[in-house]
Amino acid sequence: MKGIVLAGGRATRLGPASRGTSKQLMHVYDKPLVYYPISTLIHARINEILIISSPDQLPLYEALLGDGSQWGCRFEYAVQAEPRGLADAFIVGADFIGGDKVALILGDNLFYGYGLGEQLQTHTDPKGAVVFGLWAHDPHRYGVLELDAEGRVVGIHEKPEDPPSNLMVPGLYFYDSSVVDRARSLAPSPRGEIEITDLNAGYLADGLLEVCRLPFSTDWFDVGTFDAMLDAQTWVAGQQRRKGLLIGSPEAAAHREGFIDTEQLHRLAEAADHGGDLAKSGYAERLLRILDLEGERF
Q1: Where in the numbering of this chain does the Nucleotidyl transferase domain appear (predicted)?
Q2: How many other β-carbons are positioned within 10 Å of the β-carbon of residue 15?
């Protein structure tokens, strides 16, 4: 399975701080926001990843991330000339996807939970589409799943005034190889975008939509506002400082999933120690500290 990180958009809700940069390049505590979704894909053992962004912002991602080889990954880049909806990512990324299955994660979504990587790995061979259900106390702000008496999904509703359940759909989706053709067949919504909800509804109508319920303990942030960014910053800082973790680190994720070995991890940290910005920020030290947690799974 390949992966796509959609990192476009204008981030108007984060102005003026987002002027001159991309929202996903702004920091959440000690690392750029885009590191978090990349780490989620790596924990799912996906290491062929396409970064999609706007023409003016894409060079910034290339400068930050490179070709991904330092993390045992292969990164490619593609331009989304204008925001045309989440499902447009599959049209933009059609050549990258080829005939493979693909995961899409939104560049401003942060996921964390014990055993999350293993749970995602069990769904990387979908027979149709897999969406992830997460309990929310305010589901009307999101796409919401409607369930029948047996707990099967019978509908998906985008930001309903009267939510049929508390099970919302966060910004992570797994699809089979038919997703490109399905996305191309979608008509734009009234707001002129190719909607991910319409794509998922098509899979549901064909009996090909599976829902994976994430544990209630899963932490998730949609970092689209200043308040959400502050919440995410505070949460990451607290977890890392109290428990000695390094959340959302591609280096740590790549080591844990076997894409780089311990020697390579040491080399990355040592390169930072020799005058690099990672040493001055303390990131290199925290990177090496994760070796003490080698037996744990996150």
Answers
A1: 2-234
A2: 10
129 Cβ partners below 8 Å, 6+ apart?
A: 173, 174, 175, 176, 179, 199, 200, 203, 208, 209, 210
Q: Quickly list H helices, the chain.
A: 35-43, 58-65, 88-92, 94-97, 116-121, 179-184, 196-205, 226-243, 250-256, 262-273, 277-281, 283-289
CA distance 200 to 144: 12
Q: What is the DSSP string of 207-228?
A: T-EEEEEPPTT-EEEE--SHHH
Average pLDDT, the chain: 90
Q: pLDDT tens digit string along 242-286?
A: 888 899 999 999 999 999 999 999 888 877 554 456 656 678 888
Answer for the pair 50, 93: CB distance below 8 angstroms, yes or no. Answer: yes
For each of the domains in the chain, give its residue range(s) and CATH number, in order of start: 2-293 (3.90.550.10)
Of the candidates 257, 250, 6, 216, the residue with the CA atom closest to the CA atom of residue 117: 257
Type of residue found at 244: G
- Tell me which amino acid residue 126 is: P
Residue 196, Cβ neighbours under 10 Å: how many? 26
- The answer to whether the CB of 132 falls within 8 A of the CB of 155 is no
What number of other Cβ atoms are within 10 A of residue 205's Cβ?
9
Phi, psi dihedral angles at 172 (to 5 degrees): -145, 125
Element (H, E) at 105: strand 102-106
Which pLDDT belongs to residue 284? Answer: 82
